[in-house]
């Protein structure tokens, strides 16, 4: 058996806002944009931002600033040209990229944890 394509689905309370965050912060081109989902291309990998169904959306509260959801089983990691640029863009779009590497990172690491406008954790590495 072989896998020919990989994608991940990230459910969002406001899929358009979250899709715009990843598109602009990470420079991911949008390949599809529908009312209930957006697909972003990421070097042979598709990131699908999907609208959370209405009955569930009504039960989700996003704080301002968003509380980081760091207890998830999966974290998306992205290689970027500039961590500093990603940090600046993320902040302007309601998310965050940390100023310093996590404690577990090797010395001199150019990686940072961050979160999107809904608190979903990701990592960027330069």
Outline the structure in words.
- By secondary structure, the protein is an alpha/beta fold.
- It has a single domain, classed as Roll (2,3-Dihydroxybiphenyl 1,2-Dioxygenase, domain 1), CATH 3.10.180.10.
- It is built from three helices and eight strands, in the order βαβββαβαβββ.
- Strands 1-4-3-2 form a four-stranded mixed β-sheet, with helices on one face. A four-stranded mixed β-sheet has the order 5-8-7-6.
- A hairpin with a 3-residue loop joins strand 2 and strand 3.
- Helix 1 packs antiparallel against helix 3.
- The longest helix has 12 residues.
- The mean pLDDT is 94.
Low-confidence stretches: none
The main β sheet shows up as: 4 strands, mixed
Q: Do you know the CATH topology?
A: 2,3-Dihydroxybiphenyl 1,2-Dioxygenase, domain 1
Strand content: 25-35%
What's the helix-strand series?
Answer: EHEEEHEHEEE
Number of helices in the DSSP assignment: 3
What features would you highlight for this structure?
single chain, about 130 residues, alpha/beta, 2,3-Dihydroxybiphenyl 1,2-Dioxygenase, domain 1, four-stranded mixed β-sheet, 3 helices, about 20% helix
Topology:
Layout: E1 6-12, H1 15-26, E2 30-33, E3 37-41, E4 45-51, H2 54-57, E5 76-79, H3 83-92, E6 96-97, E7 111-115, E8 121-125
Parallel strand pairs: 1-4, 5-8
Antiparallel strand pairs: 2-3, 3-4, 6-7, 7-8
